[in-house]
Amino acid sequence: MTVLLSDDRITSIPSIENGEPLVDLYTRGLATTGRQFARETVADRLALADTFLPAGIRLHVVEGLRPIESQQEIYDGYRAELERLHPGISDHDVHRLASRFVSPVEVAPHVAGAAVDLTLVGANGPLDLGTPIDATPEQSNGACFFAATNISREARTNRALLADVLTAAGLINYPTEWWHWSYGDRYWAFTENHPAALYGPQFQSPELHQLC
């Protein structure tokens, strides 16, 4: 059974901020949608994973660091959608359901610069990975889960390739979202049996840091 980000085994893991800087992923040679930032070690591991891919295929990072306010808005919106779909659902159950797709802010890897949402691209654009990035479990009939079986053979092959290179570089996947990979967050600490997360929330944008 998948362990979710709302699980006590995750939320009880301490976060001990190590002070590692955020970096622009473009400066590490990665293809991105707009300017995307992540912790330096995350960026370096992504750049390494990119070199493992076959010629003509690249990682493409759609989102890295996410403002805390945006994370809260996404969580609240999805939670409200679930409450409409499941009238009378308990607070505990809707919180757990929401965490399949949107991390509660207090443990969210994106707000710490520890996670990225990404896909694979080739000469003709994005490869088939079964669903669009950010397809909810409801929209995709569960096909957003990494191990989903209701996707094409091509998508399955591409997901396996994505996992091979990112795992080899030391990142871990959140199993309910094929596109979400992280390092140094609480879920990584749980999966890799570390006593604490390496990174805490970032309360100031990297652009502001550069101006200070």
From TrEMBL:
PANTHER family per UniProt: D-ALANYL-D-ALANINE DIPEPTIDASE
Family to which the UniProt record says this protein belongs: Belongs to the peptidase M15D family.
Gene3D superfamilies attached to this UniProt entry: 3.30.1380.10
Organism listed in the record: Kribbella speibonae
Cofactor note: Binds 1 zinc ion per subunit.
Catalytic activity: D-alanyl-D-alanine + H2O = 2 D-alanine
UniProt-listed Pfam families: Peptidase_M15
Protein name: D-alanyl-D-alanine dipeptidase
Record-listed E.C. numbers: 3.4.13.22
Active site residues of this protein: E177
Keyword ATP-binding: no
Superkingdom of origin: Bacteria
UniProt keyword list: Cell wall biogenesis/degradation, Dipeptidase, Hydrolase, Metal-binding, Metalloprotease, Protease, Zinc
Site (Transition state stabilizer): R66
Keyword Nucleus: no
InterPro entries associated with the record: A_A_dipeptidase (IPR000755), Zn_M74/Hedgehog-like (IPR009045)
Cofactor: Zn(2+)
Job of this protein: Catalyzes hydrolysis of the D-alanyl-D-alanine dipeptide.
Top EC category: hydrolase
Coiled-coil blocks: none
Binding site for Zn(2+): H110, D117, H180
CDD domains referenced in this protein's UniProt entry, alphabetically: D-Ala-D-Ala_dipeptidase_like (cd14843)
